[in-house]
Amino acid sequence: MAEAVGALALIVASARRRWLWSVLAAMLGLLTARVSTLEVHTPKEIFVVNGTQGKLTCTFDSPNTTGWLTTVSWSFQPDGTDSAVSFFHYSQGQVYIGDYPPFKDRVTWAGDLDKKDASINIENIQAVHNGTYICDVKNPPDIVVRPGHIRLHVVEIDNLLVFLVWVVVGTVTAVVLGLTLLISLVLVVLYRRKHAKRNYTGAQSYTHS
After folding, report:
1. Strand partners, 78
2. Residue 54: which of 185, 181, 168, 153 has the closest Cα?
3. Could you tell me if 79 and 130 are in contact, meaning their C-beta atoms sit under 8 angstroms apart?
4. 88 exposure class (CB count in 10 Å sphere: 0-12, 13-18, 19+)
5. DSSP SS3 for 118
6. What are phi and psi of 17, to 5 degrees?
7. Percent of the chain residues past pLDDT 90, beyond the cut
8. For position 204, what pLDDT does the model report?
9. Is the pLDDT of residue 151 over 80?
10. Measured between alpha carbons, how far is 125 from 145 in angstroms, rounded to an integer?
11. Which of 3, 42, 170, 181 is 20 to 30 A away from residue 22, measured at CA?
C-alpha cells in the first residue's frame, strides 16, 4: 500500500512540474512576442567647424509610445581606439552627464521623446571630439537591434571654405558637362533626321524619272 501511495505521489509531482514548466514557457512566449524592434536613424557623418556648436541628430521608430521607461544613451569612440566611453544619459526627463573631460559642460539635450527625437548638442567642438558617436535608445518592451553611429569630423574654417569652393566648382562643372552632352545629343539627332529626310526625298525623285 505504501509503495502504491509513493508511486502515485511521484506521478503527481512529475505532472505538476510539467505543468509549471508549460506555464513558464507560455509566459516567456508572451513576453517575447511583445518585444518588437526599435530602429535608430542617424547621419553617417557630419562636419563641424572648430569652436562651434555641433548637433548630433538621432531619431528612432518605435510602435510603442514613449514614456518614463524610455532612455537615451550616447557613447563616444575616439579616433584610433577600439572602445567607446559613455558620456551622456537621458532618463525620466533628467540629463546625466558623465565625467569624461572632453564633454564636461559642453553637452545639452536637444531631443523630444514625444517626437521620437534623441538628439544632443555639443558646444565649442575641438579636435579632441573627432571620432564616432553612438546613439542607443531603449523604449521597453522595444529593444534596439543596432544603435546609430555618426562619424564626426572637426574642420578648420579655412579648410571648410576650400572644401565648399571645390564642391561648388565640381557641381558647376558637372552641370556644364551634362548640358553640353545633352545639347550635343540633340544636335546629332536633329542632324540625322534632317539627313535621312534628304535621302528619302532624293530616292523619290530618282524613282519618278
Report:
1. 131
2. 153
3. yes
4. buried
5. coil
6. -65, -40
7. 51
8. 55
9. yes
10. 30
11. 3
